[in-house]
Amino acid sequence: MASTSPLPSAILVHEYVTGGGWPAPDLPPGLAEEALAILRALLADLRAWGRFPVVTTRDRRLRTTGLVADRVVDLDAEVYPTALLELARDCGAALVVAPEGGGALEHLSSLVLDAGVCLLGSLPSAVAVAADKWECHRRFAQAGLPTPETARVAPAAAVAAATRLGYPVVVKPLDGAGCDGVGLATNDALLGAALQQPALRGSASVLVQRYVEGTAASVSLLVAGGRSTALSLNGQRVRAGIPFAYDGGVASLSHPRRAEACELAQRAVALVSGLRGYVGVDLVLDEEICWLIEINPRPTTSYVGLRRVIDLNMAAAIWRACRDGSLPAAVNVPPPAVFGKRWADES
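RESULT FIELD:
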């Protein structure tokens, strides 16, 4: 159903890591580069669409000036998030990109909604579910969808869980984004080392998951009103270790299990009410099964490569999905496009 609320004066695109929200003294270089690539891709699509002026934020510690927007506002910890909310109210609509870990994306989404601003993304309740890797696993399993066997345990019980599941196993935090805190263990000693990662140290509970070999992949979707359109199956360049490492991949991967993976991703997002806009679903594809891993309720790095080849302005499609509840009727399978997490494509 189309919204009857007033149209915004502009669209604010706020990326948390590079836009003034990162609380630590120094920005994380790799994560900041990946975040900038996503931000620049979104800004480029909104500029190409041209329906609304575009406003974005920049951390004062960044030296980059290559942000294609009608207005770039510098923010820092002293004014965050008060200045961000004032900016969002002035614009009337906001697209927020932030890590799920620590509740950052859920918190910002709640602030935007509570301020009466049109949120161009998933509702906070959906973000909370998607950010909880154990809750996602539980819902996948209850629905009979293929997902690796997983245990939620105290760190002291991780060895017993790994013994029951059988090595190799993956240990990971309950929340988080990307490869942060994710480690592969093939024996008790490596499991102990994986548990010492900063993202896991001091945690009351961790996840121990049976390791599945295969092609690391994701499905990019547009979601609205409980319905979804699969845009692309993407390959991920992931190196297993302590920690795992991610360095981009291939958008629109040609794979014999493409249709099965896309259908499974659509079934997965249907289990979480309130998902909207661009959503990514991570999977592992082996010779026989597509395994569901997790849901990412925000634009992911695959967006950077996919926008180069898809016959669709995805930023405009996010607007229509979140504002009007509409999805594209059909999307042609685009050609493959290699992308890297550090690419800052401004085209």
